[in-house]
Amino acid sequence: STAAAWGTPALIFPSGNTHESPRLAPNDLTIYYGENGNIMSATRTAVGQPWSMPAPLAQVNTTNYEKWLAVCNGGYFLVSRANGAHQQLYEGQLGAGNGPGTLSSLSDPSGDDISSFLSPDCTTAYLGGSFTHVNGVAAAHLAAVDTTTGAVKTAFAHNVSGQVQTVRYTHGQVIIGGIFTGVFTPTEAGA
Predict the structure, then answer these.
(1) Does residue 183 contact residue 142 with C-beta atoms inside 8 Å?
(2) Contact between 178 and 128 (Cβ < 8 Å)
(3) Which helix (H) or strand (E) holds 70?
(4) Closest Cα partner for 148 from 118, 128, 174?
(5) Which of 31, 36, 136, 181 is 20 to 30 A (C-alpha) from 18?
């Protein structure tokens, strides 16, 4: 929660397994993370209370490798799933009883969608990875995409000089990390 001061870090899910890409639901009461290729979830009754025992999220998990899950208000989600040699994005609705459908139109199939994050209103997916195009539009490693139409939001246009490995959206700002030396507008990058 952003209202509380940072406390001492604590191990919350000791398992001996690798945990990756933890993400909180918008209400801070559910956590989703990857563990050995499955998406796990745990809940708590209030911020500061203990977490429940993590369990696999059956609606999302397949025999493929799922790396992370991003959820916004209303339960709409994106999940990163291995598709051959690459990670691709899939979407779905938690509690809808069906698995996620493909969002292949959001990303270039020749590159990985390594990380993404949803805006709180679920209208925009911020994508980061090793791609150079999204939906036919030049987008070097970073893009904002309309979740309804799959259209690249060109007003967000930025080019990153290398792979974006993590994307977060918080307090109206997009924060990225990865293996790069600069972030440029298309004009600065000579596009």
Answers:
(1) yes
(2) yes
(3) strand 66-71
(4) 118
(5) 181
- CB burial string 97-125: b at 16+ within 10 A, e below: eeebeebeebbbeebbbbbbbbbeebebb
Q: Nearest to residue 113, comparing CAs of 178, 53, 173?
A: 178
Task: Find tokens 């809940």 and name the residue.
Answer: 43
Tokens 């959001």 label which residue? 106
pLDDT digits (tens, 9 = 90+) for 157-183: 778 999 898 888 877 888 999 999 988
pLDDT tens digits along 52-80: 999 999 888 888 888 888 888 778 888 88
> Would you say the C-alpha torsion 30, 62, 92, 152 has a positive or negative sign?
positive
Tokens of 58: 């059956």
- Alpha carbon distance 83, 157 (integer Å): 27
Contact status, residue 69 vs residue 59, Cβ threshold 8 Å: no
Spatial separation of the C-alpha atoms in residues 97 and 121, rounded to whole Å:
22
Strand order in the sheet with 76-83: 66-71, 76-83, 86-93, 101-102
Tokens standing for residue 61: 């998990």
Token pair belonging to 110: 């020749």
Stretch (H or E) spanning 168: strand 163-170
